[in-house]
Design a protein that fits this description.
By secondary structure, this protein is α+β, with helices and mostly antiparallel strands. The protein contains 13 helices and 20 strands. The strands form 5 sheets. Strands 1, 2, 3, 4, 7 and 8 form a 6-stranded antiparallel beta sheet that branches. Strands 10-9-13-12-11 form a 5-stranded antiparallel beta sheet.
Length: 684
């Protein structure tokens, strides 16, 4: 036969050592990598949270600044004194003095609703509500924030141009593309009243309006931890986003709506933290978002808020991991190479002894027995050779035992198949009888009431037979599962035997068998479950009647002295007999002149589902459970049941034994000491 090369073992040894060393190295690398990643991630989370707070403060200050500048401009004395024809010039100059984030400034005549001066065309930037401000101001009072009317101006959903460069505003990968201005973000439009003095009062004449886009950052370069800005109002409407197509859309329409709603809820509750987003980007890129909340600049409701998010791609936040990964990779490659070199030297010293032992093991069953290799330089290999030799001897012994066990398993499988066939027949026979008898009565084929009762009685008998079979199966199932229970009490075994004989008397008479009964004698008291004991007697008597075609059945009762091995089951003080003491047992023998049993099969009859052979089952019926149940019952009552037959057609004897209770009337020879139920009367 072709032998394996030495390199085979070396490869195996190499793989085993690598399987031990490489996982340790990988685990160390993984732990280091995870620690670095968690540190970078925690830094990114803190920076994004702080960035969100700064962005929120910037937007809040921006809104306050717009209101303040607008109120100041509307109360400007020059606006009160300048001629209407010079309003356009005034508005143009005012627009240059206002902050740079103001995109449009307009002066509207409230009487005609016409724009009379504008820095961004004649199209109104805001629809002013009627009667929002009082028409007349009796005394000169300063305007406050409540005097400012605020609304939002949404960007057009289209592709546009910024700085003469075409931008794909519908693209989802937006961190490097966007436009900061009124074309791509929502704008805040504020209007303040302008009162012109008319005599002693000031009358509402104009409205000064300005428009300014949210000051948001729409790009987040790689490595930046500031993130781009996303603004959401408390109703879930997106106010600012690098992608213009998402501005004005509700977060309910987003794939990651649940997490966005969670951010809104936490921010509304005053939280400032971070959260991971997994589907806010169409490409499925994981995002990290810090968030904070500010009072809504567009409404005067106290609880209305805007949620400001600082969003960054997770891979951007963790860009520093690339260098760490390279260092760890170089380290693991070097350590693996060192492990391989050390393993090659080690395997050379270990390969030869194992090859000799391998060759011996391969030749054990193919060639004549030979001595196991020994005298190795390594003590453990010598011990291994001795163990291998011992193992070979045990395997040969076990092979013989396994062959015997296989034969027994085949026999058990055959018995199982026979039992399944027999039990199906045993169940089907009474069931068919029940169905047939009931159908005859139901269809009215009976001539009179007596015939109906006869068929119903037969159906009842068949049902009881079926019930007995099922009860046997349930009993053996309980016994196997350990849930079988007994109700032990003081009983007269002769009375239980008589009850069982009475139940079988009719069957004995039908077959014309001769019944020999024991002579009457005083009660013999035992400690047993009367119903279960009766069941044992019935099982044995039923078998005797079933397997006896002609002849006789004789029943005898005798007492014999035995040596106790584990105490006694009496109910009085006398029951505390020491171990190995002598005690009397009652033995009930039921002998028949039936078909007998082959001595080789007698012990198998006490196993569940086992009968002498298939031909006997087909001829006489039965389920093979009666004797098995009887043995378990007798053992539970510290008794025994044995069977003896001289051979086929030589009859069978079954001996049922129980220890006699020491308070039995057999000892006192007085029936006055025993009640009708078998219990003892008390002494004065």
């Amino acid at each position: 036969m072709v032998k394996l090369g030495q390199s085979s073992f070396r490869r195996i040894l190499l793989s085993r050592i690598l399987l031990l060393s490489v996982p340790v190295l990988l685990v160390g690398e993984y732990v280091t990598y995870r620690k670095a990643r968690s540190t970078l991630l925690e830094t990114a989370r803190q920076n994004l949270t702080e960035s969100a707070v700064r962005k929120a403060e910037t937007i809040e200050q921006w809104a306050k600044s717009l209101k303040s500048n607008l109120i100041g401009a509307s109360e400007n004395s020059m606006l009160q004194s300048v001629e209407p024809k010079d309003y356009q010039k005034f508005i143009a100059q005012l627009g240059q003095r206002l902050p740079a984030q103001v995109d449009c400034l307009q002066l509207t005549n409230l009487q005609t609703n016409q724009v009379i001066a504008s820095t961004c065309g004649q199209q109104p930037i805001q629809s002013l509500p009627p009667n929002f401000w009082p028409r007349v101001q009796q005394q000169q009072t300063l305007l406050d924030d409540k005097s400012v009317y605020i609304s939002l101006s949404w960007p057009m959903q289209r592709q546009g141009k910024a700085n003469n460069k075409k931008l794909a505003l519908g693209a989802e990968n937006f961190p490097e593309a966007g436009k900061e201005g009124h074309d791509s973000q929502v704008s805040l439009v504020l209007s303040a009243p302008v009162y012109i003095r008319r005599g002693n009062s000031r009358q509402l004449s104009y409205a000064l309006s300005l428009q300014s886009a949210l000051p948001v950052q729409t790009s987040a370069p790689k490595g930046s931890l500031a993130g781009y800005t996303v603004a959401i109002d408390q109703d879930g409407t997106i106010l600012a986003h690098p992608n213009i197509n998402r501005v004005g859309r509700n977060i309910d329409a987003e794939a990651d709506a649940d997490r966005l709603k969670s951010i809104v809820r936490r921010a509304m509750a005053g939280g400032q933290a971070f959260l991971h987003l997994f589907s806010f980007d169409k490409n499925g890129v994981e995002l990290l978002a810090g968030y904070a909340a500010i009072p809504s600049p567009s409404t005067k409701q106290e609880n209305s808020k805007w949620i400001i998010l600082a969003v960054s791609r997770l891979d951007n936040a963790l860009s520093g991991l690339e260098e760490i990964q390279q260092v760890l990779f170089n380290l693991i490659v070097g350590l693996v190479a060192a492990s391989i070199i050390a393993t090659l030297y080690l395997s050379r010293d270990l390969a030869r002894p194992l090859e000799k032992l391998r060759d011996y093991a391969l030749k054990v069953d193919t060639e004549a027995p030979q001595a196991v290799p020994q005298n190795f330089q390594i003590r453990e290999f010598n011990q291994l050779s001795e163990a291998l030799n011992s193992m070979v001897q045990r395997l040969r012994s076990w092979a013989t035992e396994l062959e015997l066990a296989t034969k027994e398993a085949q026999v058990a499988n055959q018995l199982k198949n026979e039992f399944l066939g027999n039990i199906s027949h045993e169940l089907r026979t009474p069931l068919n009888g029940i169905i047939g008898f009931i159908q005859i009565v139901r269809d009215g084929y009976c001539d009179d009431r007596d015939e109906e009762m006869e068929f119903l009685q037969r159906a009842h008998d068949s049902a009881m037979q079926l019930l007995n079979i099922i009860n046997d199966i349930l009993d053996i199932a309980k016994i196997e599962s350990g849930t079988f229970s007994l109700m032990l009490e003081i009983v007269d075994i002769t009375q239980v035997l008589e009850d069982a004989i009475d139940l079988q008397a009719s069957q004995i008479q039908e077959k014309g068998l001769k019944l020999s009964l024991p002579a009457p004698h005083d009660p013999i008291i035992v400690h047993a479950d009367p119903e279960k004991l009766k069941q044992v007697f019935l099982n044995v008597l039923s078998n005797a009647v079933k397997f006896t075609e002609s002849g006789s059945i004789s029943i005898s009762v005798r007492l014999e002295s035995r040596t106790n091995s584990a105490g006694f089951n009496g109910s009085g003080p006398e029951s505390a007999i020491a171990q190995n003491a002598q005690s009397d047992w009652v033995v009930v023998t039921i002998k028949d002149t039936g078909i007998g049993i082959d001595p080789a099969h007698q012990q198998k009859l006490f196993q569940p589902f086992v009968m002498a052979d298939g031909s006997t089952t087909r001829r006489f019926g039965g389920n093979g459970l009666g004797l098995a149940i009887s043995r378990r019952i007798m053992e539970s009552m510290i008794g025994s049941i044995t069977l003896h037959s001289a051979g086929v057609n030589l009859g069978t004897s079954v001996m049922i034994s129980l220890p006699v209770n020491q308070q039995s009337s057999f000892y006192f020879h007085s029936q006055d000491l025993v009640t009708e139920k078998g219990n003892f009367k008390s002494f004065e």
